[in-house]
Design a protein that fits this description.
The chain has 183 residues and is an alpha+beta fold. It is built from 6 helices and 4 strands, in the order H-E-E-E-E-H-H-H-H-H. Strand 3 and strand 4 form a beta hairpin.
């Protein structure tokens, strides 16, 4: 394979990965270091890899066809739903049976959505680990980055609060906010 094609492919892969990282550097440095990271994304020559600052490589960095596989950024941890404040305040809100059922359904839906994002990240990383040629590596790397972006943008507590706003009456929601500020 042409070394120029490999170098361009490496730059593209690193660009997709690096676009979601706060980065600094460029110019004559030949790469960049993600802020707060102990890893350097090397983009010089014909090899694109991620090495520790000590220069050590991981075993899965080269595909079966010899295409380098950059290490992916870490998995995004998604906060767990914390409905304890609402659960404590709900007794004072005089919820109807229908509202209680809707709140329970909202909790289940939010937890299911959170799990969907967790699974999407796991599946994307599994696909990346199995990728064995240049095109598959690029596509899988894009999926990993997209799954991480979606997970980073999701907050189950904000989602649950929005559902509560739809379920509760204006008076109940105001009373709930009042209880929270007093508590």
């Amino acid at each position: 394979m042409n070394k120029g094609v490999i170098a361009i492919m490496g730059l593209l892969l690193t660009g997709f990965i690096g676009s979601d990282c706060m980065a600094m550097g460029g110019g004559r440095s030949g790469g960049f270091v993600a802020v707060g990271s102990d890893r350097k994304y090397v983009t010089s020559g014909t090899l694109t890899s991620v090495t520790g600052l000590n220069g050590g490589k991981k075993d899965n960095q080269v595909a079966a066809d010899g295409t380098p596989k950059p290490e992916m950024p870490p998995t995004v941890d998604i906060a767990a739903l914390d409905s304890s404040k609402f659960d404590g305040a709900s007794e004072g809100l005089d919820l109807s049976t229908e509202q209680k059922e809707k709140v329970a359904a909202a909790k289940a839906a939010v937890n299911a959505k959170r799990e969907k994002y967790v699974k999407a990240q796991t599946d994307a990383r599994t696909g990346y680990d199995k990728a064995n040629d240049r095109a598959a590596i690029q596509a899988a790397a894009q999926e990993v980055v997209a799954a991480a972006r979606e997970a980073r943008n999701y907050d189950p507590n904000i989602d649950f609060a929005a559902e509560l706003r739809r379920i509760l009456s204006t008076e109940q929601f105001g009373k709930f906010r009042e209880i929270l500020t007093k508590g």
